[in-house]
Write a structure and sequence with these properties.
Oligomer: single chain
CATH architecture of the largest domain: 3-Layer(aba) Sandwich
Strand content: 5-15%
CATH superfamily of the largest domain: Rhodanese-like domain
CATH topology of the largest domain: Oxidized Rhodanese, domain 1
Number of helices: 16
Helix content: 55-70%
Shape: elongated
Radius of gyration: 25 Å
Order of helices and strands: EHEHEHHHEHEHEHEHHEEEHEHHHHH
Amino acid sequence: MSGNWITHSQFDQLFINDTPLLDLRAPAEFKKGAFSTAVNQPLMTDNERAKVGTCYKQHGQDAAIALGHELVSGETRQQRVSVWKSFFNTHPDGVIYCFRGGLRSQIVQQWLNDEGVARPRIEGGYKALRQHLIQRTHELASEFNWIVVSGRTGCQKTEFIKNQPNSIDLEGLAHHRGSAFGRYPEPQPTQINFENQLAVKLIKLKARGATSLFIEDEGSHIGSVSVPECLRHATQKAERYPIEASIEQRVEVIYQEYVVAAQDLYPSREQFENYLLDSLARTRKRLGDLRFRQLSGILQQALSQDSEERHKQWIEGLLVDYYDPMYDYQMKKR
């Protein structure tokens, strides 16, 4: 990776090496989608970019470029150059990109050169990197031998996946446990960021020589994010690895995860209780109104009495009457 450019043939290596990326796009662009090793230090703020965009539409490219130089000049320019220099002092192997690898990254590259800092920019910018990752996901999904881990809720499929050296933890990437109770206090990644992380994981596994990968049996969505269709297609007829556990074991697992451990995730008791009550409410339609009211009453008793026995009672009812019938239906379809 020398000279002024990082070319398409080097993109995989960027992600395999966790190369630090200086993202020069405006914050609003970065928020829509980025890469895990990227740091957003924009050439222009959202407001400045909007002004330049309006100028471009009304007066053309030359006027827009002139306005951009006017907005980012003097002390403002020096402050931003100082931030970029600091980034490369900390990450001497870092590289530069903007949205299309055009004017913004070219300007910053030149300003840094003037300060004695010579770093390459990515050919095609963020857009080219994003397209590369989409393409690599399609290619690699069909290259691996997939082993799909299945089992009823509470069988610790995710723990099994995490303990395999060659595996894809989709729920970890999605920051969601894939069920009505699966959300965390922190938001899920955007769809773009989920797909980017998945692609990078596949690229790294391929680079280290993996040929077979364990993956959990998931639906089309994990919380708010969608599993890429090419991955779902590749795993539909894959070898299955079923995990079994008794109802008592499963109840204990769910109790420890969604009650005991979950309490530490929320800053207040009220927020924790709302999480459980809201999650149970998501099962109402499939459970039926009568069974939902019964389980909701037991859950409220469990919370008011801080009763492990009551918690396990509603959990067992939910497993037997909600999750197991849903699992049986899905298995029949397959």
